[in-house]
């Protein structure tokens, strides 16, 4: 037998839709921002009873919700493990990212992200996008103030585009478990493109990392037998 729990009618609601509280977005550290299923999906699941909680939202209510979300004032935020299974959920996720104009530390781990090049995070100093599906540095958001960037366990095959970070204050970079890690003279190539970098993959810059790279083309790879 199927018994509805008391919380069933609330399981697809965002915190902004709950009554009698004043929690604002910048007070949350690890919010779940993945939206619930669309109305079509709910009918398909035979969960249309949850629709009774939804209503037409007025412009005033939309503005009040925007003020309560208050993403513009978030300085530190963890949006990892969101399980973004549908396109409309990805779009809602990017909508929130576009509002993070003051965020300084941001974690976006394991969200199956492929391209955030249209996103700008003007104050972000620390960004963790481990365990996503990025294939190029060009797919990362614009992060002019970045100091610590972690890209472990993505699918970045070459170092092409890494020089875009030359004019940022980037000090620490993690590229572990990306295909580009297996390039010949990998560390020398990274440090030659980022002369201000102090640490790569958790290892400080060494004297041998400063020698001129012997490989001129980023796509040349070593062979592992």
Automatic annotation (TrEMBL):
Annotated keywords: Leucine-rich repeat, Repeat
Signal peptide as annotated in the record: none
Top-rank taxon: Eukaryota
Keyword presence, Repeat: yes
PROSITE patterns: LRR
InterPro entries: Leu-rich_rpt, LRR_dom_sf
Protein name as annotated: TILB protein
């Amino acid at each position: 037998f199927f018994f509805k729990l008391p919380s069933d009618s609330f399981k697809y609601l965002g915190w902004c839709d709950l009554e009698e509280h004043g929690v604002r977005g910048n007070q949350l550290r690890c919010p779940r921002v993945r939206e619930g299923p669309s109305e079509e999906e709910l009918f398909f699941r035979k969960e249309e009873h949850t629709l009774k909680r939804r209503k037409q939202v007025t412009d005033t209510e939309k503005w009040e919700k925007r003020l309560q979300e208050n993403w513009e004032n978030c300085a530190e935020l963890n949006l990892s493990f969101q399980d973004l299974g549908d396109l409309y959920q990805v779009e809602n996720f990017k909508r929130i990212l576009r509002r993070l104009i003051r965020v300084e530390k941001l974690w976006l781990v394991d969200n199956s992200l492929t391209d955030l090049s249209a996103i700008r995070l003007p104050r972000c100093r620390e960004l963790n996008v481990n365990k996503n599906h990025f294939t190029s540095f060009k797919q990362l958001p614009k992060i002019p103030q970045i100091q610590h960037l972690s890209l472990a366990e993505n699918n970045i095959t070459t170092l092409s585009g890494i020089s875009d970070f030359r004019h940022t204050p980037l000090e620490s970079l993690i590229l572990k478990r990306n295909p580009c890690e297996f390039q010949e003279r990998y560390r020398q190539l990274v440090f030659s493109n980022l002369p201000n970098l102090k640490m790569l993959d958790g290892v400080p810059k060494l004297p041998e990392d400063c020698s001129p790279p012997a490989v001129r083309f980023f796509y040349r790879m070593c062979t592992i037998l």
